[in-house]
C-alpha cells in the first residue's frame, strides 16, 4: 500500500514537470498567445522591419488587436511584406496607418495601428498603404556620431 502511494506521488511529480516544460517551450517560442478567435488578414509593406517577428503583437491604443502572421520579402519593390491577422472584433478604417514600434528602449518590436477617418472598414485581403518603418538604434547612433564629427570640423576651421 505504501509503495502505491509513492508511485502516485512520483507520477504526479513527473506530470507536473512535463507541464512545466511544455509551458516553458510555448513561452520561448512565443506560442502561448495562440488564440482561436476569428481573424481577418491585411498586409503592409515596410522598408525596414528591424527585429519584428511572426506572432509579435499588433496594438492600437495599447490594446493587442491582432498578431503578425507572416513576414516575406517582395523582390520587386525590395520591401518587407507583413501580413497582420487582426481580431474580427476590432474593425479599422481603410485609411489606417501602421508603425513598427519598440516596447521600451531595447524591448521587443510590435506593430502599432492608428485608425484613420474613412467610413469604410478594412476587410480580409486589404493592403494598408501608409506605413512607417522601424527605427533602428544603430542608425540613430551613427547619425549622432556623424553630426558631432561634422560639428567638430566646422569648429576647427
Name a few traits of the molecule.
single chain, 157 residues, alpha/beta, 2 domains, 2 helices
From N to C, what is the helix and strand string? HEEEEEEEEH
Low-pLDDT residue intervals, each spanning 5 or more residues:
none
- Describe the global form: flat
| Backbone CA Rg | 23 Å
**Extended strand count:** 8
User: Any idea how many domains?
Assistant: 2
Structural class: alpha/beta
Mean pLDDT: 85
Major sheet strand order? 7-1-4-3-2-6-5-8
Helicity range: 25-40%
User: Strand share of the residues?
Assistant: 25-35%
User: How would a crystallographer describe the biggest sheet?
Assistant: 8 strands, mixed
**Could you give the distance between the termini?**
94 Å
Supply the number of helical segments: 2
How would you concisely characterize the structure shown here?
By secondary structure, the chain is of the alpha/beta class. It is built from two helices and eight strands.
What does this structure look like?
InterPro entries: ABC_MlaD, Mce/MlaD, MlaD_Phospholipid_Transporter. This is Outer membrane lipid asymmetry maintenance protein MlaD. By secondary structure, the protein is of the alpha/beta class. It folds into 2 domains: 32 residues; 104 residues, no CATH class. It is built from 2 helices and 8 strands. The chain has an 8-stranded mixed beta sheet, with no helix packed on it. A hairpin with a 6-residue loop joins β5 and β6. The longest helix is centred in the first third of the chain and has 27 residues. It is flat, with a radius of gyration of 23 Å. The model has no long low-confidence stretch (mean pLDDT 85).
